[in-house]
Amino acid sequence: MHTTTTRRLALAAASVAVVLATAACGGGVFESPRIATRATHGTGCTLASAIAAGMAQGMDLRDAVKWARLYLLQAIAAAPGFGQGHQPLGHNWPLKGDG
Predict the structure, then answer these.
(1) DSSP assignments along the chain, one per residue
(2) How deeply is 1 buried, as exposed, middle or buried, from its count of CB atoms within 10 A (0-12, 13-18, 19+)?
(3) Per-residue pLDDT tens digits for 26-54
């Protein structure tokens, strides 16, 4: 049985990191700039689903996390701006041709 721990750390106001620790691949730290947005509703579910999709396509865990984070950052950037408070992501950005 593999044990995996994922933890999101706020390093500073300007950056965010995801820390992945697993017995299978040793882990890693994935850091990116913080995006100033309210469009954060569903980011955890989207990240987890994108990691699972990458692994289902045959990626190893580390590559699936890298790919999923890129997808998520684009989905945040492409958010449609609907609603009040935490807004939804732009999950359809690959279909729009501008991502």
Answers:
(1) ---EEEEEEEEETTEEEEEEEETTT--EEEEEEPP--S--BTHHHHHHHHHHHHHHTT--HHHHHHHHHHHHHHHHHT----SSSSPBP-TTHHHHT--
(2) exposed
(3) 667 777 777 778 778 888 899 999 999 99
Contact 51, 43 (CB under 8 A): no
Integer Cα distance of 64 and 66 in angstroms = 5
Distance CA 12, CA 41 (A): 21
How many whole angstroms from its chain centre is CA 11?
16
Is residue 51 within 8 A of residue 65, CB to CB? The reply is yes
Q: How far out from the chain centre does Cα 33 lie?
A: 12
Q: Please state, as a whole number, how many other Cβ atoms lie within 10 Å of the Cβ of residue 21.
A: 14
Q: Region 72-81: what's the mean pLDDT?
A: 85
